[in-house]
Amino acid sequence: MTENRERYCHSESIKGGSIKVCSQGNSSFPMSC
After folding, report:
1. Which of 2, 14, 5, 1 is nearest to 30 (CA)?
2. What are phi and psi of 15, to 5 degrees?
3. What is the pTM of this model?
């Protein structure tokens, strides 16, 4: 079995700037980079 440990990061523009959203598996959380 192969485990999926890939992280998909994309920048999302929000009010007052932009943030980096990283989604791992089926859970996504905002990351401030």
Report:
1. 14
2. -70, 115
3. 0.36
